[in-house]
Design a protein that fits this description.
The complex is a heterodimer of chains A (416) and B (402).
Chain A lengths: L1 E2 L5 E6 L5 E6 L6 E7 L16 H8 L2 E2 L2 E2 L1 H6 L3 E6 L4 E7 L3 H13 L5 H19 L2 H14 L12 H5 L3 H11 L5 E7 L3 H12 L23 E6 L5 E8 L8 H16 L4 H8 L4 E9 L5 E8 L3 H13 L5 H17 L4 H13 L6 H8 L2 H13 L2 E9 L6
Chain B lengths: L3 E5 L5 E11 L2 H14 L9 H10 L4 E9 L2 E11 L11 H13 L7 H20 L2 H13 L14 H6 L2 H11 L4 E7 L2 H8 L26 E5 L6 E8 L8 H11 L5 H9 L6 E6 L4 E8 L4 H16 L5 H19 L4 H11 L7 H6 L3 H9 L5 E5 L1
Parallel strand pairs in B: 1-5, 6-10
Antiparallel strand pairs in B: 2-4, 2-5, 3-4, 7-9, 7-10, 8-9
Helix pairs in contact in B: 1-4, 9-12, 9-15, 10-11, 11-15
Classes of the chains: A alpha+beta (416), B alpha+beta (402).
Chain lengths: 416, 402
């Protein structure tokens, strides 16, 4: 058990098949959160054979099917509500509940431990996933992101849409799902996080029998970066149903090229992005005063097995000029001591809020375990991060990254 | 006279505080308030531009503040809210409740109508347009907007429940906003805070303008809107990949609490066990998402889904068949029990969210009701009551956006 400076107590247990349980104690709360994260997502490929795009996400949907029906019914019987998501390198199944905690957690283990794939249930689910894909295709942000990922990663797996394509979905069968499941869903490649007010020893003993039914094998998923593409900066223009043009800029980098570990690199990138593109930054204000930006500039930083990237996006009536200015400013970025201290305080305040939200707390915590990081150390890392570290890293970031951009014009204006 | 209600925070790492003003819902009020709330986010008297204001919020450990109008039936509540990390989480002595309240007071009561006010107004108008465009670009939001525009065709005050009238907003001047703001501060108001050290907060609030607000007429018993148009079908063409289908069914106006409608909606389309989810998605495989919502103050049950054009007829038949099942008592007691358990469970989880205590207190004060035992009320609902609720629903208004 570990207690940190924010009075958060964390317990850990490894079962004999290698499956790990983490429990964050939240005394006095009725709500509980439990999630199992699989170290496998939409961009992962086995290496010795190829799975169709969208397999991880399809698997996420299909594991809810059991011989007796949909396992969601079982959660509901225990007053829980379940959900799941798939990202580039992760699949997460989770449930929130207030009562019958052990039954809900055992059901969560059953969800990942007992697949039931038939051609019939796979055919029905394929139609539902196609509807999900159509829904995304109507979203302007999806169109931008899809194009940007293709520009940055060519035909590599990171450019494949996590949901897949219509053609790829046609090629996913019960056999495909079984192959993917057997390859990725085993005890050492998944971890359970529980947040709430429970008896830890009882939790371990209650779920042990269920956990031992999870497939056990020894080979681990590779964590090698696979992106080899050499980029030349370019701008792509597409059209869609938008009132005002939108833009998205991808900054591609590789954390292995840097002199620090991921948390410090992430902190530096957060600080510089916020300082450039946040509402309190001079650069953002200049864009706004010149009428070059509508609303806020969003940014997001992603670390993945297949490649690392940041995305900067927004809306502008003159998107080409805005993109040009943003890229130029990014590669000329600097920060003053006063700005640095302000951004550090902001980052700390944003992150500390997460401890009140069981779902995002649980997800971020278990991600940090897969990344071999100490979750609470991150708060100390923010406080210990120095101005000199930041300046030095900003210089590295500028020298070790390349960019691509996409502009989404309103239909009929793509040639303007 | 004490305006503030201060609740004890035992579990959370953040302070929540809100100052709420009450006005009647009119198109004009909503338009003014949409613009004013954006305007206030862009500068105050002390921090007279957005950069200074946001920089100070960053310095206060990412203080969150927001002013926005929210509609409760025929009433607008202007929600000026702040969320701050509790000061005892950091060693910085300058960060305390006094600093928090000083900033919050500045945000609510010291709008900048002098220094570069025309520029600030121009930015606020652009922000409103951008928010409107971004909202409308999402196909399901567009369908929602079109539904309300048609449903309240005879009541323009209720037609655009999110932004008001963009044409009116475009015409407003700094002088218009300044005069309106002065009137706003005389409207019935309440202040609610949720903090770790209530006594300390109370003594700080005592010397502020928050304690001078008039909350004598804040509560009112009925907030319901007029009834809109039903019994018709309307189509729009937007060339989407997926069509958007919206149903609206009117309820009787004499329900005193939302509980029965919530249970009904939960069974019809509330969660994955619901009739709509099971029949339209799981069995027919026609949609990814289908759900129902109960709008208590609007006397309205709405169903919304996205689907391919060639599935519309089949999906519509299945949706309408589920309502028939509910009317004819052709559904199981188990479904009722599951819906009740899920509603109660969702509520218990919601009650442990940092913002809930303030929201719950606001509703209690606004409707002049005691904070009721939600679990007891939900458990008292019978199957017969749900069937009767289904039977009294009107013919729908059906809006299809292709």
């Amino acid at each position: 058990m570990i207690t940190n400076q924010y009075h958060e107590k964390v317990y850990q247990h490894t079962f004999s098949n290698g499956f790990e349980l983490f429990y964050i104690e939240k005394r006095g709360f009725i709500q509980k959160f439990a999630g199992i994260m699989i170290n496998y997502g939409g961009a992962d490929q086995p290496g010795d054979f190829v799975l169709p795009a969208g397999t991880a996400h399809f698997l996420e949907h299909q594991l809810f099917a059991k011989p007796y029906g949909d396992i969601t019914d079982k959660f509901e019987q225990y007053e829980g509500s379940s959900n799941a998501f798939t990202s580039y390198n992760e699949t997460m199944y989770f449930a929130s509940f207030t009562h019958q905690a052990y039954e809900n957690i055992k059901t969560l283990v059953e969800l990942v431990a007992k697949p039931y794939f038939t051609e019939k249930n796979v055919t029905t689910e394929r139609e539902i996933i196609l509807q999900e894909l159509k829904m995304y295709q109507d979203m302007p942000d999806w169109q931008l992101n899809n194009r940007l990922m293709h520009l940055m990663y060519g035909n590599e797996s990171l450019s494949q849409e996590v949901v897949g394509t219509e053609d790829a979905l046609d090629n996913i069968t019960a056999e495909t799902l079984t192959t993917a499941y057997n390859h990725y869903y085993y005890s050492k490649n998944m971890k359970l996080i529980v947040v709430g007010d429970l008896d830890f020893n009882q939790l371990v003993s209650e779920i042990e029998e269920d956990v031992m039914q999870i497939n056990d094998k020894s080979n681990m998923v590779s964590e090698e970066k696979s992106s080899k593409i050499e980029l030349k900066s370019q701008m792509s223009k597409i059209s869609g149903k938008v009132e005002s043009p939108k833009f998205s800029i991808g900054i591609k980098f590789d954390e292995q090229d840097f002199s620090v570990k991921r948390p410090q690199l992430y902190i530096a990138m957060q600080i510089i992005m916020e300082n450039l593109f946040g509402l309190s930054g001079q650069f953002y204000q200049n864009l706004q005063s010149k009428g070059l930006i509508n609303g806020e500039i969003d940014f997001d930083i992603n670390f993945n097995r297949q490649g690392d990237f940041a995305v900067i996006s927004g809306s502008s009536e003159n998107p080409e000029e805005t993109v040009h200015k943003i890229v130029k400013q990014f590669y000329q970025a600097s920060i003053s001591n006063v700005e640095f201290e302000k951004q550090k305080r902001k980052l700390f305040g944003q992150e500390i809020r997460q401890l009140d939200d069981f779902e995002s707390y649980g997800i971020e915590f278990i991600e940090s375990v897969f990344d071999h990081e100490d979750y609470y150390q991150y708060y100390t890392d923010i406080q210990d991060f120095s101005f000199d570290d930041c300046v030095s890293l900003i210089s590295e970031i500028k020298n070790k990254s390349v960019h691509q951009s996409v502009i989404l014009f309103s239909q009929n204006n793509v040639d303007k | 006279m004490t305006t503030a209600t201060i609740l004890k925070n035992d579990n959370f790492k953040t302070v929540s505080i809100g100052c709420f003003f009450k006005l009647p819902l009119t198109k004009e009020n909503l338009s003014y308030l949409t613009l004013l709330s954006n305007y206030q986010q862009l500068g105050t008297q002390e921090y007279d531009n957005q950069q200074k204001l946001e920089a100070h919020a960053d310095y206060l450990y990412a203080a969150k503040f927001e002013t926005r109008p929210q509609i409760y039936g025929d009433t607008i509540i202007v929600r000026a809210e702040g969320n701050f990390i509790e000061p005892d989480l950091v060693t910085d002595e300058s960060y305390n409740y006094t600093a928090i309240i000083k900033f919050f007071e500045e945000m609510v009561f010291r709008p900048n109508f002098k220094n570069q006010a025309d520029y600030q107004l121009d930015l606020a108008k652009k922000q409103v347009k951008h928010d409107y465009d971004s909202f409308s670009e999402v196909a399901s939001n567009k369908a929602y907007q079109l539904f309300f525009k048609e449903y309240y065709k005879d009541y323009p005050d209720f037609q655009n429940p999110i932004f008001g009238d963009l044409a009116l907003i475009e015409q407003l001047t700094v002088s218009d906003l300044s005069s309106y703001y002065n009137q706003l501060t005389k409207a019935p108001a309440t202040v609610i805070a949720h903090v770790k050290y209530p006594q300390k907060m109370a003594s700080i609030l005592e010397n502020t303008v928050f304690e001078e607000l008039d909350n004598s007429n804040f509560g009112q018993s009925n907030l319901k809107t007029k009834l809109g148009k039903v019994g018709c079908e309307i189509e729009f063409d937007y060339d989407y990949n997926q069509a958007q289908l919206v149903y609206g069914y009117q309820t009787k106006t004499d329900y005193q609490t939302p509980i029965l409608g919530l249970v009904f909606s939960q069974i019809l389309g509330g969660d994955e066990y619901s009739l709509l989810f099971q029949e339209v998605r799981q069995k027919a495989g026609l949609v990814y998402s289908v759900f129902s919502d109960y709008y208590f103050y609007n006397n309205l049950v709405m169903i919304q889904t996205s689907l391919l054009s060639d599935s519309i007829t089949t999906a519509s038949e299945i949706i309408e068949a589920q309502l028939d099942k509910m009317r004819h008592n052709n559904w199981s007691e188990d479904l009722l029990q599951t819906a009740k358990q899920q509603l109660i469970s969702h509520r218990l989880i919601l009650e442990e969210m940092p913002q809930f205590k303030v929201q719950s207190e606001l509703i209690a004060q606004l409707r002049k009701i005691e904070k009721a035992d939600f679990e007891k009320q939900v458990n008292a609902i019978t199957k017969q009551q749900v069937v009767e609720f289904a039977q009294q629903l009107s013919q729908p208004m059906k809006v299809l956006v292709r």
